[in-house]
Amino acid sequence: MTTEQRATVPPQVQRIVLVDDHAIVRQGLRTILEREDDLEVVGEASTATEAAAVIERTDPSIVLLDLKLSTAADTEGLDLCARLTQRHPGLAVLVLTTFLDDSLVVEAIQHGARGYVVKDVDTTELLRSIRAVARNESAFDSHAAAAMVRSMRVQPDRPKFTERELKVVRLLAHGLSNRAIGAELYISETTVKFHVRNIMRKTEAGSRAEVVYEASKLGVI
Question: Which pTM value belongs to this model?
């Protein structure tokens, strides 16, 4: 094939499914991606169940996946990621979420994701990440990459809490409800629930009382 012939060969089009519980986010992503000749949005889903059905039907090469897909579970996307990559081994999952936590970045990769970027990433970086996972490479924005580096420095037997999580733990120790914690920290009750569940996962605690007990043993309260 000559140089001229190679220049006329169109790039392989990557078929993308968007999985996010906010329609306005999906609409914005679709608008951005469909400007690119090598990217095509072939489906959307707002729940894990919808996502499984849409991906089965459309056979995409890439899934852009939010970790939070409902108010009931803040990291439902992790489980979905594992199921999708097990059922579709060639599928590239790129996590695109608002949550940035060192352990979540690591867990996403452990659950089969090829990359992790936060939603405040600029368009150029997002497109670069999508094309990287399409080439079977890893893709992290600067925040997620830093989180990966920090996680490798953490002692494996000792959970590491973010500053916000430490504040939540200390307010839990004072017996505050999720609503009261949210008011104290100027965050939503939903965000408080996310942090509490994340803390429970890190401490392997089954209740808020166990969280306080484990945190006291670790010396953080």
Answer: 0.67
